[in-house]
Amino acid sequence: MQCRVSSVALLLEFWVLSACALHQFHLVTTSLSWPAAQSYCREHYVDLATVDSMEDLQGLIDKVKHIGQVYLWIGLTIDRSVSSWKWSLSGSQFYREGETEYRNWAQPITGQPCAALVSKEAGVWRDYACTNTYSFVCSHSGNDPGKPKYILVLERRTWRHAQIYCRQSYTDLASIRNQAENIEIQQLVLGENSSAIVWIGLFKDDWKWSDQSTSSFRHWYNDYPYYHSDYDCALTHPSWSSYPRDPWQWISYPCSYFSYFICHNGSITNTTILSTLGSTTKTPTKVKLVVRVELVPNSPSDLEDPAMLDSILQQMKAAGRIPEHSTLRWKKQKDGKVFHKKEEEEEGGRGDTCH
Protein backbone atom coordinates (compact mmCIF):
# COMPACT_ATOMS: atom_id res chain seq x y z
CA MET A 1 0.00 0.00 0.00
CA GLN A 2 1.14 3.48 -0.81
CA CYS A 3 0.31 6.57 1.27
CA ARG A 4 -0.17 9.95 -0.37
CA VAL A 5 -0.61 13.30 1.31
CA SER A 6 -3.29 15.29 -0.47
CA SER A 7 -5.30 18.47 -0.14
CA VAL A 8 -7.93 20.50 -1.96
CA ALA A 9 -7.04 23.53 0.12
CA LEU A 10 -5.05 25.75 -2.23
CA LEU A 11 -7.05 28.86 -3.06
CA LEU A 12 -6.00 30.70 -6.22
CA GLU A 13 -7.61 34.05 -6.95
CA PHE A 14 -6.94 36.34 -9.92
CA TRP A 15 -8.54 38.82 -12.30
CA VAL A 16 -8.75 37.79 -15.90
CA LEU A 17 -7.82 41.18 -17.37
CA SER A 18 -4.32 41.69 -16.05
CA ALA A 19 -2.41 44.90 -16.68
CA CYS A 20 -1.21 47.31 -14.04
CA ALA A 21 -3.42 45.93 -11.28
CA LEU A 22 -4.50 47.86 -8.22
CA HIS A 23 -5.61 46.26 -4.99
CA GLN A 24 -9.11 46.45 -3.54
CA PHE A 25 -8.52 47.70 0.00
CA HIS A 26 -10.79 47.32 3.02
CA LEU A 27 -10.42 49.25 6.28
CA VAL A 28 -11.16 47.30 9.47
CA THR A 29 -11.78 49.48 12.55
CA THR A 30 -11.16 46.76 15.13
CA SER A 31 -7.91 46.94 17.10
CA LEU A 32 -5.91 43.72 16.78
CA SER A 33 -2.28 42.62 16.89
CA TRP A 34 -0.59 42.08 13.53
CA PRO A 35 -0.92 38.25 13.63
CA ALA A 36 -4.60 38.51 14.63
CA ALA A 37 -5.21 41.09 11.90
CA GLN A 38 -3.57 38.76 9.39
CA SER A 39 -5.89 35.91 10.44
CA TYR A 40 -8.95 38.17 10.21
CA CYS A 41 -8.04 39.36 6.69
CA ARG A 42 -7.37 35.82 5.50
CA GLU A 43 -10.74 34.66 6.83
CA HIS A 44 -12.84 37.53 5.48
CA TYR A 45 -10.86 38.82 2.48
CA VAL A 46 -7.58 37.64 0.92
CA ASP A 47 -4.87 38.97 3.24
CA LEU A 48 -3.45 42.03 4.95
CA ALA A 49 -2.83 44.88 2.52
CA THR A 50 -0.08 44.60 -0.09
CA VAL A 51 1.03 47.79 -1.88
CA ASP A 52 2.69 47.46 -5.30
CA SER A 53 3.23 51.04 -6.46
CA MET A 54 2.62 54.73 -5.77
CA GLU A 55 -0.66 54.42 -7.66
CA ASP A 56 -1.63 51.46 -5.49
CA LEU A 57 -0.65 53.45 -2.38
CA GLN A 58 -2.91 56.32 -3.46
CA GLY A 59 -5.79 53.85 -3.65
CA LEU A 60 -5.07 52.81 -0.07
CA ILE A 61 -4.90 56.44 1.07
CA ASP A 62 -8.24 57.22 -0.61
CA LYS A 63 -9.80 54.33 1.32
CA VAL A 64 -8.55 55.39 4.77
CA LYS A 65 -7.91 59.15 4.72
CA HIS A 66 -11.33 59.99 6.17
CA ILE A 67 -10.66 58.29 9.51
CA GLY A 68 -8.09 60.81 10.76
CA GLN A 69 -5.10 60.27 13.00
CA VAL A 70 -5.06 56.50 13.48
CA TYR A 71 -2.46 53.75 13.20
CA LEU A 72 -3.01 51.00 10.64
CA TRP A 73 -1.34 47.64 10.08
CA ILE A 74 -0.39 46.68 6.52
CA GLY A 75 0.80 43.27 5.36
CA LEU A 76 4.57 43.83 5.55
CA THR A 77 6.65 41.84 8.03
CA ILE A 78 10.32 41.05 8.43
CA ASP A 79 11.90 37.76 7.38
CA ARG A 80 15.58 37.81 8.22
CA SER A 81 16.15 34.55 6.35
CA VAL A 82 15.42 36.08 2.92
CA SER A 83 17.52 39.26 2.88
CA SER A 84 18.27 40.23 -0.71
CA TRP A 85 18.90 43.19 -3.03
CA LYS A 86 15.81 44.63 -4.71
CA TRP A 87 14.96 47.55 -6.98
CA SER A 88 12.89 50.45 -5.68
CA LEU A 89 10.79 50.39 -8.85
CA SER A 90 8.51 47.39 -8.52
CA GLY A 91 6.37 45.85 -11.24
CA SER A 92 6.97 42.90 -13.54
CA GLN A 93 5.87 44.93 -16.60
CA PHE A 94 9.11 46.95 -16.37
CA TYR A 95 11.54 43.99 -16.32
CA ARG A 96 12.11 41.16 -18.76
CA GLU A 97 13.35 37.78 -17.57
CA GLY A 98 16.62 38.06 -15.66
CA GLU A 99 16.78 41.88 -15.71
CA THR A 100 16.10 42.31 -11.99
CA GLU A 101 19.22 40.24 -11.26
CA TYR A 102 21.75 42.36 -13.16
CA ARG A 103 24.56 43.55 -10.84
CA ASN A 104 27.85 45.41 -11.33
CA TRP A 105 29.37 45.24 -7.86
CA ALA A 106 32.85 46.32 -6.94
CA GLN A 107 34.50 44.24 -4.25
CA PRO A 108 34.29 43.97 -1.36
CA ILE A 109 30.62 44.43 -0.42
CA THR A 110 30.64 45.84 3.10
CA GLY A 111 27.10 45.00 4.24
CA GLN A 112 25.52 48.46 3.96
CA PRO A 113 21.91 48.50 2.70
CA CYS A 114 21.87 51.08 -0.16
CA ALA A 115 23.66 51.00 -3.53
CA ALA A 116 25.35 53.77 -5.52
CA LEU A 117 27.10 53.89 -8.88
CA VAL A 118 30.70 55.19 -8.84
CA SER A 119 31.13 56.83 -12.22
CA LYS A 120 34.89 57.39 -11.95
CA GLU A 121 35.49 53.70 -11.25
CA ALA A 122 34.12 52.45 -14.58
CA GLY A 123 30.56 52.59 -13.29
CA VAL A 124 30.88 49.89 -10.63
CA TRP A 125 28.45 49.80 -7.73
CA ARG A 126 29.28 50.07 -4.06
CA ASP A 127 27.13 49.70 -0.96
CA TYR A 128 26.85 52.60 1.47
CA ALA A 129 24.88 53.66 4.55
CA CYS A 130 21.50 54.96 3.36
CA THR A 131 21.98 58.10 5.49
CA ASN A 132 24.96 59.23 3.36
CA THR A 133 24.12 62.13 1.03
CA TYR A 134 24.94 61.89 -2.69
CA SER A 135 23.57 63.09 -6.00
CA PHE A 136 21.17 60.60 -7.57
CA VAL A 137 19.65 59.36 -10.81
CA CYS A 138 15.88 59.18 -11.36
CA SER A 139 14.13 57.25 -14.10
CA HIS A 140 11.18 58.19 -16.28
CA SER A 141 9.44 55.03 -17.47
CA GLY A 142 6.72 56.71 -19.54
CA ASN A 143 6.37 56.33 -23.30
CA ASP A 144 6.89 60.02 -24.12
CA PRO A 145 9.89 60.12 -26.52
CA GLY A 146 10.44 63.78 -25.65
CA LYS A 147 11.41 62.97 -22.06
CA PRO A 148 14.80 61.54 -21.10
CA LYS A 149 14.95 58.03 -19.71
CA TYR A 150 17.33 59.01 -16.88
CA ILE A 151 17.53 62.30 -14.99
CA LEU A 152 20.59 63.26 -12.94
CA VAL A 153 19.79 65.34 -9.84
CA LEU A 154 22.87 67.10 -8.52
CA GLU A 155 21.39 68.00 -5.15
CA ARG A 156 22.79 65.74 -2.42
CA ARG A 157 20.24 63.72 -0.48
CA THR A 158 20.00 60.54 1.58
CA TRP A 159 18.90 57.45 -0.34
CA ARG A 160 15.40 57.59 1.17
CA HIS A 161 14.90 61.27 0.38
CA ALA A 162 16.26 60.72 -3.14
CA GLN A 163 13.69 57.94 -3.59
CA ILE A 164 10.86 60.23 -2.46
CA TYR A 165 12.01 63.02 -4.79
CA CYS A 166 12.17 60.68 -7.81
CA ARG A 167 8.72 59.21 -7.09
CA GLN A 168 7.16 62.65 -6.78
CA SER A 169 8.89 64.22 -9.78
CA TYR A 170 9.41 61.29 -12.18
CA THR A 171 8.85 57.54 -11.74
CA ASP A 172 11.43 56.25 -9.25
CA LEU A 173 15.13 55.97 -8.54
CA ALA A 174 16.87 54.45 -11.54
CA SER A 175 16.83 50.71 -12.08
CA ILE A 176 19.72 49.32 -14.14
CA ARG A 177 18.74 46.22 -16.08
CA ASN A 178 21.84 45.52 -18.18
CA GLN A 179 25.36 46.67 -19.01
CA ALA A 180 24.18 49.09 -21.71
CA GLU A 181 22.02 50.99 -19.21
CA ASN A 182 24.87 51.01 -16.71
CA ILE A 183 27.17 52.63 -19.28
CA GLU A 184 24.44 55.14 -20.20
CA ILE A 185 24.09 56.30 -16.60
CA GLN A 186 27.85 56.40 -16.07
CA GLN A 187 28.27 58.65 -19.11
CA LEU A 188 25.39 60.88 -17.98
CA VAL A 189 27.10 61.43 -14.63
CA LEU A 190 30.55 62.02 -16.11
CA GLY A 191 29.10 64.42 -18.68
CA GLU A 192 27.74 66.66 -15.93
CA ASN A 193 31.08 66.70 -14.08
CA SER A 194 29.17 65.68 -11.00
CA SER A 195 30.24 63.80 -7.91
CA ALA A 196 31.66 60.39 -8.70
CA ILE A 197 29.02 58.71 -6.50
CA VAL A 198 25.29 58.71 -7.31
CA TRP A 199 22.44 56.81 -5.70
CA ILE A 200 20.59 54.22 -7.82
CA GLY A 201 17.42 52.35 -6.91
CA LEU A 202 18.96 49.19 -5.44
CA PHE A 203 18.50 48.47 -1.74
CA LYS A 204 18.95 45.52 0.62
CA ASP A 205 15.67 44.23 1.99
CA ASP A 206 14.56 41.55 4.42
CA TRP A 207 10.84 42.31 4.50
CA LYS A 208 8.07 40.33 2.81
CA TRP A 209 4.35 40.67 2.14
CA SER A 210 1.89 38.49 4.03
CA ASP A 211 0.20 37.27 0.81
CA GLN A 212 3.59 36.16 -0.62
CA SER A 213 3.66 38.95 -3.19
CA THR A 214 7.16 39.54 -4.56
CA SER A 215 6.59 43.30 -4.83
CA SER A 216 9.68 45.29 -3.78
CA PHE A 217 7.68 48.51 -3.27
CA ARG A 218 8.51 50.14 0.09
CA HIS A 219 7.42 53.52 1.53
CA TRP A 220 9.38 53.85 4.78
CA TYR A 221 9.38 56.98 6.90
CA ASN A 222 12.78 58.68 7.34
CA ASP A 223 15.34 56.23 8.73
CA TYR A 224 12.96 53.32 9.11
CA PRO A 225 12.74 50.35 9.21
CA TYR A 226 14.07 50.37 12.75
CA TYR A 227 16.02 47.14 13.15
CA HIS A 228 15.22 45.85 16.62
CA SER A 229 14.36 42.32 17.67
CA ASP A 230 10.71 43.23 18.36
CA TYR A 231 10.03 45.70 15.54
CA ASP A 232 8.98 43.14 12.96
CA CYS A 233 5.73 44.48 11.45
CA ALA A 234 4.76 47.59 9.46
CA LEU A 235 2.38 50.36 10.53
CA THR A 236 1.23 53.42 8.62
CA HIS A 237 -0.14 56.75 9.90
CA PRO A 238 -1.19 59.99 8.14
CA SER A 239 1.30 62.16 10.02
CA TRP A 240 4.38 60.16 9.06
CA SER A 241 5.78 62.06 6.14
CA SER A 242 9.22 63.18 5.07
CA TYR A 243 7.51 65.91 3.03
CA PRO A 244 4.03 67.47 3.36
CA ARG A 245 2.94 66.02 0.02
CA ASP A 246 3.89 62.48 0.98
CA PRO A 247 1.75 61.25 3.92
CA TRP A 248 1.03 57.72 5.15
CA GLN A 249 4.63 56.53 5.14
CA TRP A 250 5.51 53.37 7.07
CA ILE A 251 7.40 52.48 10.24
CA SER A 252 8.40 49.17 11.78
CA TYR A 253 6.75 48.39 15.11
CA PRO A 254 6.21 45.48 17.55
CA CYS A 255 3.69 43.03 16.09
CA SER A 256 1.93 42.71 19.45
CA TYR A 257 0.65 46.32 19.29
CA PHE A 258 -3.14 46.59 18.88
CA SER A 259 -4.20 48.69 15.89
CA TYR A 260 -6.78 49.08 13.15
CA PHE A 261 -5.69 47.48 9.89
CA ILE A 262 -6.19 47.27 6.13
CA CYS A 263 -7.07 44.10 4.21
CA HIS A 264 -7.11 43.54 0.48
CA ASN A 265 -9.43 41.43 -1.62
CA GLY A 266 -7.32 40.80 -4.70
CA SER A 267 -6.42 43.14 -7.54
CA ILE A 268 -8.51 44.95 -10.09
CA THR A 269 -7.68 46.99 -13.18
CA ASN A 270 -9.82 49.01 -15.55
CA THR A 271 -8.86 48.82 -19.20
CA THR A 272 -10.17 51.72 -21.27
CA ILE A 273 -10.73 51.01 -24.94
CA LEU A 274 -11.19 53.99 -27.25
CA SER A 275 -12.96 53.54 -30.57
CA THR A 276 -14.87 55.57 -33.08
CA LEU A 277 -18.00 54.76 -31.09
CA GLY A 278 -16.66 56.36 -27.94
CA SER A 279 -14.99 54.86 -24.89
CA THR A 280 -15.83 51.69 -23.06
CA THR A 281 -14.51 50.57 -19.70
CA LYS A 282 -14.01 46.86 -19.15
CA THR A 283 -13.93 45.69 -15.57
CA PRO A 284 -12.28 42.29 -15.15
CA THR A 285 -14.05 39.37 -13.54
CA LYS A 286 -12.60 37.88 -10.41
CA VAL A 287 -11.71 34.20 -10.78
CA LYS A 288 -11.39 31.99 -7.72
CA LEU A 289 -10.05 28.46 -8.09
CA VAL A 290 -9.60 25.71 -5.52
CA VAL A 291 -6.78 23.48 -6.69
CA ARG A 292 -5.99 19.94 -5.50
CA VAL A 293 -2.42 19.50 -4.37
CA GLU A 294 -1.15 15.95 -3.95
CA LEU A 295 2.26 15.21 -2.51
CA VAL A 296 3.93 11.86 -3.22
CA PRO A 297 5.59 9.58 -0.62
CA ASN A 298 8.65 10.87 1.21
CA SER A 299 7.02 14.28 1.49
CA PRO A 300 8.04 16.41 4.50
CA SER A 301 6.42 15.27 7.73
CA ASP A 302 5.79 18.77 9.11
CA LEU A 303 3.23 19.91 6.53
CA GLU A 304 1.19 21.84 9.10
CA ASP A 305 4.22 23.99 9.98
CA PRO A 306 3.46 27.55 8.71
CA ALA A 307 7.04 27.92 7.45
CA MET A 308 6.74 24.72 5.40
CA LEU A 309 3.36 25.76 3.95
CA ASP A 310 4.85 29.15 3.07
CA SER A 311 7.82 27.47 1.38
CA ILE A 312 5.51 25.32 -0.79
CA LEU A 313 3.61 28.41 -1.99
CA GLN A 314 6.85 30.22 -2.83
CA GLN A 315 8.07 27.24 -4.88
CA MET A 316 4.79 27.14 -6.81
CA LYS A 317 5.04 30.86 -7.63
CA ALA A 318 8.70 30.50 -8.60
CA ALA A 319 7.75 27.79 -11.10
CA GLY A 320 6.05 30.50 -13.18
CA ARG A 321 2.74 28.71 -13.69
CA ILE A 322 0.61 31.07 -11.62
CA PRO A 323 -1.20 33.97 -13.38
CA GLU A 324 0.32 37.41 -12.84
CA HIS A 325 -1.33 39.50 -10.07
CA SER A 326 -2.80 36.34 -8.53
CA THR A 327 -2.92 35.51 -4.84
CA LEU A 328 -2.19 32.08 -3.41
CA ARG A 329 -3.16 30.97 0.07
CA TRP A 330 -4.01 27.80 1.92
CA LYS A 331 -7.66 27.31 2.88
CA LYS A 332 -7.97 25.21 6.01
CA GLN A 333 -10.38 22.30 6.08
CA LYS A 334 -13.16 21.82 8.65
CA ASP A 335 -10.84 20.25 11.23
CA GLY A 336 -8.44 23.20 11.00
CA LYS A 337 -5.78 21.29 9.04
CA VAL A 338 -4.51 21.96 5.54
CA PHE A 339 -3.35 18.47 4.50
CA HIS A 340 -4.95 15.07 5.03
CA LYS A 341 -3.53 11.63 4.34
CA LYS A 342 -5.38 9.32 2.01
CA GLU A 343 -5.09 5.62 1.25
CA GLU A 344 -4.33 4.25 -2.17
CA GLU A 345 -4.97 0.51 -2.58
CA GLU A 346 -2.50 -1.68 -4.40
CA GLU A 347 -3.94 -3.63 -7.32
CA GLY A 348 -5.70 -6.77 -6.00
CA GLY A 349 -5.12 -5.80 -2.38
CA ARG A 350 -6.96 -4.10 0.42
CA GLY A 351 -6.07 -0.70 1.76
CA ASP A 352 -4.66 -0.45 5.27
CA THR A 353 -4.44 2.56 7.53
CA CYS A 354 -1.61 4.96 6.71
CA HIS A 355 0.62 6.13 9.55
Question: In a few lines, what is going on in this structure?
Answer:
The chain is an alpha+beta fold.
Shape: globular
Structural class: alpha+beta
Number of helices: 5
Report the portion of residues in β strands. Answer: 25-35%
Q: Tally of extended strands?
A: 20
> How far from one another are the termini?
11 Å
Helix content: 10-25%
- pLDDT below 50 for ≥5 consecutive residues: which ranges? 1-19, 270-289, 344-355
Radius of gyration, taken over Cα atoms and rounded to an integer in Å? 23 Å
**Average pLDDT figure:** 78
Order of helices and strands: EEHEHEEEEEEHEHEEEEEEEEHEE
Q: Please describe the biggest sheet, giving its number of strands, its sense, and whether it closes into a barrel.
A: 7 strands, mixed
Task: Please characterize this protein's 3D structure.
With 355 residues, this protein is an alpha+beta fold. Among the domains are: 2-15 and 284-344; 84-205, no CATH class. The protein has helices at residues 34-44, 54-64, 159-169, 179-191, 306-318; strands at 2-15, 22-32, 47-48, 72-78, 84-87, 114-118, 124-128, 134-139, 150-157, 172-173, 197-205, 207-209, 233-236, 250-253, 259-268, 271-275, 278-282, 286-295, 327-330, 340-344. β16 (271-275) and β17 (278-282) form a beta hairpin. The N and C termini lie close together (11 Å). Mean pLDDT is 78; it is low at 1-19, 270-289 and 344-355.
